[in-house]
Amino acid sequence: MKRNNLWAPWRIGYIQGLSEKHDCFICHNVKNPQQNEENFVLWQTKSCLAMLNKFPYNNGHLLLAPIRHIAGLEELNDGELLEITKLIVASQKVLTAAIKPHGFNIGMNFGRCAGAGLPGHLHIHIVPRWDGDTNFMETCAGTDVISQSMKDLYKQLKKASTENNLPGF
Fold first, then answer.
1. Looking at the 3D structure of the chain, how many domains does it have?
2. Per-residue pLDDT at 11
3. Total Cβ atoms within 10 A of residue 62
4. What are residue 65's phi and psi, to 5 degrees?
5. What are the pLDDT digits (tens) for 101-110?
6. pLDDT tens for residues 134-164?
7. What CATH number is associated with residue 112?
8. Catalytic-labelled residue, pool 61, 121, 123, 125
9. Is residue 71 included in any domain, yes or no?
10. How far is CA 3 from the centre of its chain?
11. At what angle do helices 150-163 and 78-99 cross, to 10 degrees?
């Protein structure tokens, strides 16, 4: 039986990093705003930030996080909780304007055993979904197909943010 290969070279950084000890990439992004475009940080508010997931499950996959390095929801203060919730709404609005998904998965993973790739810094996943986007690649091969470059998507979402006059961005 002939096997086909789907090349996804951007995933090697993630795979190799699983066994290495790394500093928190969210904290790194907060401390280095001059690298926002390189790190795909879309927006930073008073106490939160939003960025593209560098290892996405789907096109437009965002991560939202408080600026403070905290692990759990119970550690958020009322201002952070309100701000990150508003950021969820704003993210959906921008993603809808820019790439027109049919729905969203929004979720959090607490602890490595629950799937958290960064268990020490609370973050929320915003994953745009389209009718029919779970296809044979996911079902048979456990493979996600991302249809747009991160750089192009970043520019598109920044433009949609400006065009929609989102406050705080």
1. 1
2. 59
3. 27
4. -150, 150
5. 999 999 998 8
6. 644 444 445 555 667 888 888 888 888 888 7
7. 3.30.428.10
8. 123
9. yes
10. 31
11. 110
